[in-house]
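Archive entry: two folds, one per protein. Generate the first.
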Amino acid sequence: MTATTNAQARARLIDLLRERSVIRGDFVLASGKRSTYYIDARRTTMSGEGQALIGPLGLAALQAHDWTPRAVGGLTLGADPVAYAIVHTANLSGDSLNAFTVRKEAKTHGTGRRIEGCFDPGDGVVIIEDVITTGRSTLAAIAAVHAAGGHVHGVLAVVDREEGGRREVEAAGIPVAVLVTVSELGV
């Protein structure tokens, strides 16, 4: 993706997030904090246009940080459509990249895995977040990957709420790339 095309796609992603994903009201976030807005990124990341924008932007972000993971993924459900968009774009570009999902807890049946999909011990991965707020869920996904024998190159978030999550993850020694900040959404 050229710099101009990348800038245009990013501008459209910001517009799409504003149109589809920013909801005003009174909300309790997963962190327990109250907020006058909620970012339901899935309303963008699960749309066809959102997928078409996020795939190339996400892949470009991985390349810009020199991250060469075997797979991308994170806590289900927010990370899933973002990971799939990036993997699809990589495949179209001739790159080998897979996706995985981290469950909140291991299954009690079948294989009993907490990480599903294309993940093996020893894999280098990038953790995906749709929205990073406090960093708690991101750190949980990182811990699950480490416990399963994986190595985390970094974290890619679609939206940073700018509430300290990025700082928490980076304090743990994991670099973070962000496609859009909440400030850019005008919230």
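Generate the second and append.
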Amino acid sequence: MDDGAVLDSVLDCIITMDANGIVLEFNAAAARTFGYTKAEAIGRVLADLIIPPPLRASHAAGLAHCVATGEGPLLGKLIEVTAVRSDGSEIPVELAITAIQTGKTPIFTGVLRDLTARREAEAELKRLNDEIQLQRLRIFKATMRTVQQIVNNMLNTLHLVHLEAAGELPPQTVTAIEHLIKEAADKLKALGDLETVTEKDMAIGQGIDYPGSPS
């Protein structure tokens, strides 16, 4: 199997360019990912193919610096950057660049992996987690309404007992009943405050992208 066949069997994109940024190798995965055939890519300036226009000047400056000094901040590191496809759409990619010295000038090989599917999976996982949190809030609110009703019924019963016991029970007993009434009223108010928490409040507090949330 020749070198070209080996490169084309690799799932990651492999792109090689010379010191002038001209594409020397463009494997099958790169063709699938970026929408150019190998014949269309080879011989062209890499920046014109896959670098977003706003980043092309900095790419050219970085390449020139690397060729002149043999050093570059991206060499030998795994980073995440934005690349552009032939249709103009941008995609997130994971990139590792190595430089090989050949004569007086180096050639550069980049191994790229399209992160679109991973990002979509992460976004879906976040959406599901957000939905779970909102469902928990709905259950919490329903529970609070039930407990609030129970405490309200207890409060009404205590009021009746207080009215019926007026003048018939010792003062300390009446005072104890009044204390229970006040305590039950305070608890009822606290439950009411909790129950008024809205799904939007919960969403904003957790950083969830809730419809109508401030951006």
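Annotation attached to the second fold: The chain has two domains: 3-114, 120-205. Residues 210-215 have pLDDT under 50 and may be disordered.
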